[in-house]
Automatic annotation (TrEMBL):
Assembly with partners or alone: Homodimer.
Top EC group: isomerase
Subcellular location: Cytoplasm
Alphabetized UniProt keyword annotations: Cytoplasm, Gluconeogenesis, Glycolysis, Isomerase
GO biological process, alphabetically ordered: gluconeogenesis; glyceraldehyde-3-phosphate biosynthetic process; glycerol catabolic process; glycolytic process
One Gene Ontology term, aspect cellular component: cytosol
NCBIfam families according to UniProt: tim (TIGR00419)
Broad class of the protein's primary localization: cytoplasm
Name under which the protein is recorded: Triosephosphate isomerase, cytosolic
Family: Belongs to the triosephosphate isomerase family.
Entry-linked Pfam families: TIM (PF00121)
Involved pathway(s): Carbohydrate degradation; glycolysis; D-glyceraldehyde 3-phosphate from glycerone phosphate: step 1/1; Carbohydrate biosynthesis; gluconeogenesis
UniProt superkingdom: Eukaryota
Amino acid sequence: MGRKFFVGGNWKCNGTTGEVKKIVNTLNEGQAPSQDVVEVVISPPFVFLPLVKESLRPDFHVAAQNCWVKKGGAFTGEVSAEMLVNLGIPWVVLGHSERRLLLNESNEFVGDKVAYALSQGLKVIACVGETLEQREAGSTMDVVAAQTNAIAERVSNWNDVVLAYEPVWAIGTGKVATPAQAQEVHSELRKWLGKNVNPEVATSTRIIYGGSVNGANCKELAAQPDVDGFLVGGASLKPEFIDIIKSAEVKKNA
Ligand SMILES: O=C(CO)COP(=O)(O)O
């Protein structure tokens, strides 16, 4: 079985109740390929998770944007993996660069979070990616390998992990990685998984790309052999998100 195309919409810290209802309506009315072809996961801020979960079409799923590193308790302001499970939220995004960089989440902390979330039965979109400085210094692979390694050291079952390669310089900048740049890192990451985890995990794990993906550039990126989908920020708040979901057809026809 091939890797099913995966499209995540990361709304980040955006939206009012009215805006959320409008986006959900647009998504519900959009024509998307069937669930056999594409897995769609929408990630609103915590406070909107119940509303989105209740009102979203049943073939799309929801994700939280973060969760606490261990069992809940006296951790003011945090949301635990158990709470997400209790609410029927199947997915969580962990290790997003905005959290790594702005909130100083280390590779080890992200690895611990991924392991704990999986242990509670959540599925995880784990994000890795280099800064512009790191890319220019030629250390892209070292950086993403170290980020992935911190996860691999703590996780034995990769069935419920989607790896998102999100170069920091491409996030929210309008400066998308070229299809060749994305393919190069995805293919290296897959080789890394083959060598450091095992060949089966390398073949089956979906590696998705994030960073200024939009309706115009998604098809060419989707056509790359090691690009298994997208994690979309800004464009996931717009009707063109449906076009990005449809780019799954590129794979089906490949
Ligand atoms: O960070 C991202 C998704 O997690 C990408 O954001 P943009 O699509 O806005 O560049």
